[in-house]
């Protein structure tokens, strides 16, 4: 999810608030299809595409209908809860709307499909983590290769200076739509993986994840830097891992789960202050220049 948010906020300089909506739609599509007996790989692909549709709508609202970027994202995000209830309602006979879907023990996800039983059951969590890591690495490689192409560079140019990009013959409207669509498709994929891991989804599942994704980006950039594009992608991923590792440690150490949102807020505040702390630390390390007088 952090990688998807990174594409719009850092590469395209597009203040996109669609993220929570595409996460929810992607997860709802995936879990509903699995509950109806669809192959989990196909369901994950459909969730990926559903997230992309959310981004495509946001891009059209902004570029073709000239609605401001923030408002375009808000419109799509606002509509997503109702659409998700319709999607999830298809799994409940006689009720076209529902705000909760859970999977039974007999439903197969991409994680349960590769988890061994018997004596090897204790390695299930490790295997699941390995699959997650493999998917993240695959996404990083695909993004690195795509944004190294001529069209990928055109999208990056659009984010850096839209007027200059347009003057050089780049269709900035199309570049915006493509990048926002790709961004939300990746976020939709994150929703698919999340709901298959938790085996449930409701309309509040994605609440607060946009801010968490932004905090992950800031933490990664502050700690690991952004010297090259490849380094930047890895930094964002590592920032997300660090963020959730700290949260998990705090909760395991006895931090009240009722105050989890407060913990999120504190971590986000610290993340936003990291660049300032680093700049102050560098200033403190500089030795004052000695001025010689004759």
What features would you highlight for this structure?
294 residues; two-stranded antiparallel ribbon; 70% helix; globular
Description:
By secondary structure, this protein is mainly α. 70% of the residues lie in helices and 2% in strands. Strands 1-2 form a two-stranded antiparallel ribbon. α2 runs antiparallel to α3. The protein starts with a helix and ends in a 9-residue tail after the last helix.
Cα distance spanning the termini: 61 Å
Q: Helix and strand string, N-terminal first?
A: HHHHEHHHHEHHH
Radius of gyration: 21 Å
Percent of residues in helical segments?
55-70%
Strand content: under 5%
The count of strands amounts to 2
| Order of strands across the main sheet | 1-2
Give the overall form: globular
**Largest sheet descriptor:** 2 strands, antiparallel
Coarse structural class: mainly alpha
Summary of the model, kept short:
By secondary structure, this protein is mainly α. The chain has eleven helices and two strands, in the order ααααβααααβααα.
Produce the secondary structure layout.
Layout: H1 2-11, H2 19-35, H3 40-63, H4 69-89, E1 100-102, H5 124-146, H6 150-160, H7 162-167, H8 172-198, E2 200-202, H9 209-224, H10 229-252, H11 260-285
Helix pairs in contact: 1-8, 1-9, 2-3, 2-4, 2-8, 3-4, 3-8, 5-10, 6-8, 9-10, 9-11
């Amino acid at each position: 999810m952090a990688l998807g948010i990174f594409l719009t906020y850092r590469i395209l300089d597009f203040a996109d608030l669609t993220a929570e909506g595409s996460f929810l739609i992607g997860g709802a599509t995936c879990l509903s299809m699995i509950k109806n007996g669809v192959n989990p790989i196909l369901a994950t692909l459909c969730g990926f595409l559903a997230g992309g549709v959310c981004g495509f709508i946001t891009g059209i609202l902004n570029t073709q209908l000239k609605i401001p970027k923030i408002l375009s994202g808000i419109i799509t995000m606002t509509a997503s809860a109702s659409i998700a209830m319709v999607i999830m309602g298809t799994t409940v006979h006689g009720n076209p709307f529902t705000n909760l879907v859970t999977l039974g023990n007999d439903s197969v996800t991409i994680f349960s499909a590769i988890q061994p039983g018997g004596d090897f059951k204790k390695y299930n969590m490790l295997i699941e983590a390995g699959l997650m890591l493999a998917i993240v690495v695959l996404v990083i490689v695909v993004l690195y290769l795509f944004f190294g192409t001529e069209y990928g560079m055109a999208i990056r140019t659009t984010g850096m200076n839209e007027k200059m990009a347009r003057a050089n013959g780049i269709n900035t409207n199309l570049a915006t739509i493509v990048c926002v669509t790709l961004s939300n498709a990746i976020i939709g994929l994150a929703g698919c993986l999340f709901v298959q891991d938790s085996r449930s989804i409701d309309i509040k599942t994605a609440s607060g994840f946009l801010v968490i994704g932004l905090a992950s980006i800031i933490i990664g950039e502050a700690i690991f830097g952004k010297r090259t594009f490849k380094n930047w992608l890895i930094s964002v991923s590592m920032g997300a891992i660090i963020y959730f590792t700290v949260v998990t440690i705090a909760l395991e150490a006895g931090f009240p789960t009722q105050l989890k949102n407060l913990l999120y807020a504190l971590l986000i505040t610290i993340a936003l202050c990291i660049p300032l702390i680093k700049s102050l630390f560098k200033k403190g390390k500089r030795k004052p220049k000695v001025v010689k007088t004759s």
